[in-house]
Design goal:
This protein folds into 2 domains: 36 residues, no CATH class; 53 residues, no CATH class. The termini are far apart. A hairpin with a 4-residue loop joins strand 1 and strand 2. It has 5 helices and 2 strands. By secondary structure, it is mainly alpha-helical. It has a two-stranded antiparallel ribbon with strand order 1-2. The longest helix has 18 residues. Keywords: Metal-binding, mRNA processing, mRNA splicing, Nucleus, Spliceosome, Zinc, Zinc-finger. Its main location: nucleus. GO terms for molecular function: zinc ion binding. One of its GO terms (cellular component) is U12-type spliceosomal complex.
C-alpha cells in the first residue's frame, strides 16, 4: 500500500508521493481549509477592521445564505454582529491596559 500523507487541514489522506502532495497542497479545497483554520486564531480587532471595510452581502441579507460562503468578498455580518465584535474589541483593549 505504501506511505500515506494525512492533511490535518482537510482531514483526508492520500498516497504520499511528490505529485500527489504537490497537487493537494496547491488545490483550492486545501487552500480554503487552511485559510479557515488560521482564521480561527485571528484577533477580534483584525476581524472587525476587515469586516468594516466590506460592503454587506445583499444575497446573505435577503436569504440568510450565500453561494460563495467564506469566499464571498462581501460581509456576512449583521449590525448586531458588528456591535458585539466591537464590544469584544473594547473589552480586550481595556483588559490589556
Amino acid at each position: 500500500m505504501g506511505k500515506r500523507y494525512f492533511c490535518d487541514y482537510c482531514d483526508r489522506s492520500f498516497q504520499d508521493n511528490l505529485h500527489n502532495r504537490k497537487k493537494h497542497l496547491n488545490g483550492v479545497q486545501h487552500l480554503r481549509a487552511k485559510r479557515l483554520w488560521y482564521d480561527l486564531f485571528r484577533d477580534a480587532a483584525a476581524i472587525l477592521q476587515e469586516e468594516q471595510t466590506k460592503k454587506p452581502c445583499r444575497k446573505f441579507l435577503q436569504t440568510g445564505q450565500c453561494d460563495f460562503g467564506s469566499n464571498c468578498r462581501f460581509s456576512h455580518m449583521t449590525e448586531q454582529d458588528l456591535e458585539k465584535l466591537s464590544a469584544q474589541v473594547q473589552g480586550e483593549s481595556c483588559s490589556k491596559q
